[in-house]
Amino acid sequence: MSMSAARGVPGKRERLVVIGGDAAGMSAASQARRLKGPDELEIVAFERGHFTSFSACGIPYWVGGDVPERDQLIARTAEEHRARDIDLRMRTEVVEIDVAGGRVRARDVDSGAESWTSYDKLVIATGARPIRPDMPGVDAPGVHGVQTLDDGQALLDTLAHTRGRRAVVVGAGYIGVEMAEALINRGYEVTVVNRGSEPMSTLDPDMGRLVHEAMEGLGITMVDDAEVTKILTGGDGRVRAVATEDAEYPADVVVLGIGVHPETALARAAGLPLGEHGGLLTDLAMRVRGHENIWAGGDCVEVLDLVSGSERHVPLGTHANKHGQIIGTNAAGGYATFPGVVGTAVSKVCDLEIARTGLREKDARRAGLQYVTATIESTSRAGYYPGAETMTVKLLAERRTGRLLGAQIVGREGAGKRVDVAAVALTAGMTVEQMTSLDLGYAPPFSPVWDPVLVAARKATKAVMSATS
Amino acid sequence: MSMSAARGVPGKRERLVVIGGDAAGMSAASQARRLKGPDELEIVAFERGHFTSFSACGIPYWVGGDVPERDQLIARTAEEHRARDIDLRMRTEVVEIDVAGGRVRARDVDSGAESWTSYDKLVIATGARPIRPDMPGVDAPGVHGVQTLDDGQALLDTLAHTRGRRAVVVGAGYIGVEMAEALINRGYEVTVVNRGSEPMSTLDPDMGRLVHEAMEGLGITMVDDAEVTKILTGGDGRVRAVATEDAEYPADVVVLGIGVHPETALARAAGLPLGEHGGLLTDLAMRVRGHENIWAGGDCVEVLDLVSGSERHVPLGTHANKHGQIIGTNAAGGYATFPGVVGTAVSKVCDLEIARTGLREKDARRAGLQYVTATIESTSRAGYYPGAETMTVKLLAERRTGRLLGAQIVGREGAGKRVDVAAVALTAGMTVEQMTSLDLGYAPPFSPVWDPVLVAARKATKAVMSATS
């Protein structure tokens, strides 16, 4: 990300239109407003939902009870945005982008009334929509997604009115495992049904296996290699079980945590360029390719993966916020870029921490990279210090060059954020051998004398040397 | 650190002599043994003390009761080393190095008997000695250093037999603050007397102030700007108070935590090159400069500071272990290097975490660098997530280039190890602007959507832009 001061075009008041009032869109609007006052730049933002600038990542913790109040997840209300001279129109859905005409058609969700709004500059931040499998029963009462605050409230309402305590979570990615924790915290017996061979397919299967075992240790029933074929309902029409080809899992409540797709129907209809994952394609300034005055960011775009060199869809709030900053700076006439991602993610299930960055083995193969791996076990603190917890660290390094390609960590307290060391090393293009001499913080309450990441780097260095032939 | 496989010189059995049986020395011996068997390489190690390969960094936690048993701090016993064909001679002090003759003179500490041992290769790992101020009363019963396991045992004996509960810690560096925690854990009223303007002089004073305030909040009496002039004893000869020019602080026990000097008397007498901090000077392969067959590492050497470009003395177990690995590899005919340090350190006092890396403001000035600073407050987790704790992050960036020069963090749980992100960024020579787009792990239990280090990088980027004129 690079920034420079905004340059004004004196005399003309421009209009910036933002589609989507969540992280990317409202960060863009806020940053543009910071750089240009309302006399220079009018900002109009359209949001079809009831809420703006909320933390979707926080929903599992609200559902689980760690976050008592919905409104704690709202970073900034519509009123707060309006107080900063952003003309935010809630419950208003943009239904068409007229690129040639430089205007958008918006519909009032409640009244159905439509009108056109012209723009000088446009920001597309339409986010993502949850994958909702097309199968019998998926719309039955008691089956819930967890994408929006309304979804979260509906799930909480179901939990409050359901006597049975059996929950099935469909999907074992980060939303699935976080929802498993939430439902355990609410006192449910939780079954996670997952079509992959192990949970957390964002990890290699050997590391996913550790997650499987740890989740079973938490009392969660793990069903792998199982495709859900339908959702069975009872006489009252409510969900009663989740069915796979081989089995049925009784359920009083079902949570769908299967993932999301970029929400780009509008962009597609407008002829804007989409990538192979269905997300908008932008340049490094987050401008939609080929369109000088249209930017896009957040869950509706594809981002450059700096390790593989190809585009990925990585729907995460942290990227959406960064995109918003970049877009707001550029749309206000400044200069900023987003170089790409290395693919870092952390999640937790109760006291289990799961982290990854960079490429998995299959990503490396797909990118044409040959690699070695090294997996080690170590502890979060000096072995003799109270609370030292075991963690497993796996590194991938390129064959011959030894360049770090990826890291995966599964452990307890102190495991997850250690992935940041690998994320920075990846960004810098370090070799695993260079990593062995990283000057990381050491004291017995914080780390063994060799930090687990360094122990893994040493083993990976040996693997690179052995494979150099 | 780079490594390559060891190359043997066939036919000749060489002798490697190691002076000092702690982290650097025994890591070197063990690594050399891993690469060369006893038929190729004889390894003789001399240790003047009672223990080998112990964690000096763990002593405060043993004294404080977090680590119940002394032997938990011993990573490897003398017997374990001997079982790997290392001829480890305990209670045997090397009293002379005859460089020209390729031999060392060793004395049995108990009997006084002396003998010469010749070497083909020599490792000097004599460590550091605690600074013990030359003042009246410093040797009185009840005044303790905490450098060795014997020191720790002596202090524990004093604590067990002392009825009074008033402890004075002299010095407020990392040993001082860790000992303050240990004594609080033992139920003492603790006063820390410190000649600096704030505790933790490894931080800038503005960050040290936060440590001062937090330690007072923990019930510790903090006395800054106070040079201890003498230690007062009672009628029984035991310590009764610590005196400064202005005041007396009653004490039933006194702990000296003033720091250490490189232990290089032997090396100096042998004419080996020492730096301005009194430590041995080595090349990047940890070879003593100008001596093909002598290596040195651990607390007795100076290391290259990669940020300032000059040598520093950084006595830390984590470096000593790395040095040992490098030396063992090279002494066994392999190839490995230690590039230097960026100066990372973490410590804690009860629940307060303190971390630093790179240059302080005064270090930057001394290195001829112009800089800007940025200090921010943020939280360890999403603000709405339970257990989110405040932390303060300060960054230094070079004027004009924006290159990161240093980072300091003071906070609670989750603060300390965040310094690793800055440590890796420093090693990679990143600018604070490059840091703003680092792909760090985000989920509400682990971080706000903008990690505190990124928030600080954004503010530092603005400071660099404002100062670019």
UniProtKB/TrEMBL annotation, chains A, B:
Alphabetized UniProt keyword annotations: FAD, Flavoprotein, Oxidoreductase, Redox-active center
Record-annotated FAD/NAD(P)-binding domain positions: 15-310
Classification via Pfam families: Pyr_redox_2 (PF07992), Pyr_redox_dim (PF02852)
Co-factor requirement: FAD
Domain Pyridine nucleotide-disulphide oxidoreductase dimerisation: 347-449
Ranges in a coiled coil: none
Similarity comment: Belongs to the class-III pyridine nucleotide-disulfide oxidoreductase family.
Protein name: FAD-dependent oxidoreductase
Organism field: Streptomyces lanatus
